[in-house]
Structure formats: structure tokens, C-alpha cells
Amino acid sequence: MSAPAKLPPFDPADPLGIDDLLSDEDLAIRDTVRSWAADRVLPHIAEWYENGELPGIRELARELGSLGALGMSLTGYGCAGATAVQYGLACLELEAADSGIRSLVSVQGSLAMYAIWKYGSEEQKQRWLPSMAAGETIGCFGLTEPDHGSDPAGMRTYAKRDGTDWVLSGRKMWITNGSVAGVAVVWAQTDEGSGGIRGFAVPTDTPGFSAPEIKHKWSLRASVTSELVMDEVRLPADAVLPGVTGLKGPLSCLSHARYGIVWGAMGAARASFDAAVEYAKTREQFGRPIGGFQLTQAKLADMAVELHKGVLLAHHLGLRMDAGRLRPEQVSFGKLNNVREAIEICRTSRTVLGANGISLEYPVMRHVTNLESVLTYEGTVEMHQLVLGKALTGLDAFR
């Protein structure tokens, strides 16, 4: 009888051995993005967050383009053609730095670029995608409106025919990258019969288009958020995305972006959890580190369980996406669970740090407030619950 194989040592940073599921290329991509974030974001993010700005966003976009992080899982047109798992790992590392940085990448690649890549004409792809993949052109995605968030079918933005042109009018709200974008993918009602919602690739220097920046945010402060205003914006016939009509277009883009959030939320959770662990090992009360008390250890254990379960869930969904088998309901499953658990991990981490938890010297409160936005955008908790409820029962509770 042969001797049993020697077990590897327990790794507190990877208690389930999830790294064993990753290829050498996966690990290299993850480590590259982590190193970039440590060098270019972490030394400055507290100041950016406190000031409510993201200075040098165009330079950051070009650097992210050089890493291959923009439109990362798309193929051709200068895109990296990475796997869904590799894109997810990048999202995790970016959001471990800050949700605003991951949002920049998600909106660029999974919303604006994906819409053009999936539904655009060859001419539109050639015009926009190479420069967007390089970070030379920033994109935004206009779906949400001031009065229509969870119900995009009720949008009021309208595009009407005028000869061979389209004339676009309306407003979009809470648009990441809006005021720095060179192209806006805007969804609008048309008179093309039932379900006539169409997407338009709108150059932002077109007369009648403006994107005032939204200020006074208490979440995603290191992120550019804007309103889009279209006042009789005249577009040529070839501005419309020809590959889709109806809500299928924007909703499929949102599903692609939500997948990145499933991973990214675990990055915010990991950063907060790591801060709590380190603090618990060094902060002394009653003559010894608080990490030696049972209640603190219970918090750390529970957070570790939910954190690494969430990463396993994200990895599973990534494998399904790579196999072409990922359903929108499964993305809702991941987004609902991982963001909800991530925000709870961050809140519990804050309690471990006590009063220091609210200081920008630590990342925890910044991640808590950012995740309040992540919890809501790309589908609220309630919407994903109803998506899963319908899938489980066959009964539609939306209406």
C-alpha cells in the first residue's frame, strides 16, 4: 500500500485551493492586472475618492488598453480574445482596487464595445472597436433614463426618420464615462412597429449632443458619471446598429456586463476582508490582538466562507460562458448572490476595524459605499429575485 500523498499547506489567502483551477495563463493575467492596479490606482484612490474625481482617465484608459483589458473577451478588431474566466479575474482585481475602475472597464468593453461588436455593421466595427480596444476612444452606454430604470421598455428617448437620416431626442441618466466618451451607444424608441427599440452609435461631437457630469455622489466617487442629453441630434442612416431590434439588444449587453460584476464584487469583498484580517492580527484590546477573540474569529470565518464561495460561483459561471452555456438567469443568480454577500462582507469588515473602519486610510468604507451602487445598477436585487422567481415557477411577477 502506497503512502498517502502529502497535503499542501493551508493557504489563508486561498483556503479552498481555487488557484488550482486556474491555468498558468489565467494566473499571469490576474497577476498582471493586480500589479497594474497596485501601481497605478491604489496609491491614489483614496484621494480621488475624497475629491470625487478620476483624474487622468484618458491616460488610464490607454494603459488599460495596452494591458488588453478593454473588450477583453471579444475577438478581432484589436481585442485580446481572452476567455470569460480571464476577463472575470481581471474584473476581480480591478474592483479590489475600486469599483469605479472596474466600471470604467465594464462599460467600455461589456456594454459599448460589446454592443457594436455583437450588433454593429462591419463599417461600425472597423470605425470604433480598434481605437476603443486601445483606450484611445472611450465609450458609454445610454439606456437608463431619469424616469425609467428597471423598466427600459418605457423609455422616452425617440429616434424618428427624416429622409435617410435619423433625428434623436431624449435624456439618459447615470451614464458611466458619459462626459469623456467619444462614442455613445444610445437606445431609443422608433416607429418601426412593435418592439422597435434600436441602438445608435452616436459620435459625441455631433451637434445637439451633450453630457453634463453628475456631481455630489456619495458612491462611485472615483468614476465619471453623466447625464446624456440629445436635442434633435441628426445622425446618418449608418449610425443605427443593424443587427438587432427590440430590448434583446440592450438586455444582452447588460447580461454580459453583469457577468463581470459577479467577479468584481468579490474583489471589493476581498480587499475589505484582507484589511479586516490584518487589522485583527495587530489591533490589541484587553491585552491581546482582537483576532484572538472568538467573536472576531467567527466574523472572519463567516466572511471567508462567503467570499470564496462567491469566487467559486463566479468561476463556474465563467466556465459556462466559455462553453457557450451561460443563461441570463444564471447571471442573475451570480449577480444577486455575489453583490449581496460582498456588501455584507464589507460591512462586517467595518465592524472589525471599529472606528478606523470609516477612515479612508483603510479601503473598507470606500468599498461599502461603492457597493451600494453596484447593488442597484445592472439590475436591482428585487429585479434579479424576480428573474429567478419566474425561472423557478414559470410565473411572471413583473406585471
Explain this structure to me?
Strand 8 and strand 9 form a beta hairpin. The strands form 3 sheets. Strands 2-3-7-6 form a 4-stranded antiparallel sheet, covered by helices on one side. Strands 1-4-5 form a 3-stranded mixed sheet, with helices on one face. Strands 8-9 form a two-stranded antiparallel ribbon. The model has no long low-confidence stretch (mean pLDDT 95). The protein is globular and about 80 Å long. The protein is an alpha+beta fold. It folds into 3 domains: 18-133, Orthogonal Bundle (Butyryl-Coa Dehydrogenase, subunit A, domain 1), CATH 1.10.540.10; 139-239, Butyryl-CoA Dehydrogenase, subunit A, domain 2; 248-393, Butyryl-CoA Dehydrogenase, subunit A, domain 3 (Up-down Bundle). The longest helix is centred in the middle third of the chain and has 35 residues, at 248-282. It contains 11 helices and 9 strands.
- Indicate the CATH topology of the largest domain: Butyryl-CoA Dehydrogenase, subunit A, domain 3
The first-to-last residue Cα distance is 65 Å
| Average predicted confidence as pLDDT | 95
Major pleated sheet: 4 strands, antiparallel
CATH class category name of the largest domain:
Mainly Alpha
Strand order of the largest sheet: 2-3-7-6
The CATH superfamily of the largest domain is identified as Butyryl-CoA Dehydrogenase, subunit A, domain 3
Query: Into how many domains do the coordinates divide?
Result: 3
Judging from the principal axes of the Cα atoms, what is the shape? globular
Low-confidence stretches: none
Total number of β-strand segments?
9
In the CATH hierarchy, the architecture of the largest domain is: Up-down Bundle
Q: Give the ordered list of helices and strands.
A: HHHHHHEEEEEEEHEEHHHH
Q: Helical element count?
A: 11
Structure classification: alpha+beta
Radius of gyration: 22 Å
